[in-house]
Amino acid sequence: MISGDVIELRNVLAVTPAGAKRASITVRDGIIVDVADSPCGGVSERGGEASAGERELRPEARTCTVIDAGGRRAVPGFIDLHIHGALGFDAMDGDVDSLRALSETLVKWGVTAYCPTTVSAGREALCKSLGTIAEAASLSCRQDWKGAEIIGSHCEGPYFARNRRGAQPESAIRTPDMQEVEELWESSRGTLRIFSLAPELPGAISAIEWLRQRGVTVSAGHSDASFEEAMRGVKAGISQSTHTFNGMRPMTHRDPGIVCAVLTTDAVDAEVIADGMHVHPEMVKLLVRVKGVERVIAVSDLTHMAGLPPGLYSLGDTPVELTASGAFVRGTGGLAGSVSPLLVAFNNLLKWGFGIEDAVRLTSSNAARKLGLERRKGAIAPGMDADIAVLNDDGTVFLTMVRGRIVYQA
Asked: Is there a catalytic annotation at residue 68?
């Protein structure tokens, strides 16, 4: 957007911190400057020079583009803290062009910001991937970036319980190594946002404390921890759980385990994959009821297979079969990540009975707050980044705006 240019998104049902309302959203220089009440009405899309009246109200504006949303919902762009790839592109590719293509894919599903997520791999591969994500993150703030913004990396593994590894490559699973942890951090150039590990492993507590001192969110995942082991991890600095319920020691009445620690500890926010397959809808409802709507973050855990035709694929050295219903580890039938973007989770939440304000919290606002970005992202309000998804009545995306740039329009 040229400095001073204005976009007016009119005739929307905007979901704001104060609730949903008919509104006109005004954007200048990538920032929302006004969310004004407006009656229903049609305004044709146009561009070019502002009218005399508009120039009077905005004398510095060089052009004003008005878009009629036709009464569609406008929600804060989705923020995905746990996503590996889509359409064949993967965070482990170690290639900026691959991440650019992934970003351009995600905006078609309403995602405006995300953390590319690695999987368990060798040290060299992980360092390369984290370095590439850092490079792409700096580029994603530029005007010529046409996709979702990269807001840091999520390192999922390799320090996991072998018996809870799920589809994580078994050959890459290992115990924490502080020299390696430091190398991973340095490779990320300070952009490492989330590190998932199993807190019960030897050396995990030292790694948790070291990462927390550097502002990294440490998330418990792929873990066989007892309740006591999980709580030691929380005391050391764990403040999130990775895809809660999945890849975790199950909770029973005599063995509460890590799941109970997550459910009962206010200091821990809970990721959940709300694709309707990884976690039963009633368990998602239970999680929100126990944790509170402010402490649950919906994630996609999307893999590079998302959007690809059914067939045989792999996650690292793990063979995977992609079917019309999902991705499964060949031989075991276990789930191999998700192929449903965060847009599906948002629509599922509405279908499962969540109000639209709560669905926004789970798919955007809570993630922004977790990363300390709540003053910039996760809400449609003056002063916030203009990260907006406008949705059709059928739940598909009509338009996506990233920091004031229209990067997708159906």
From this structure: no
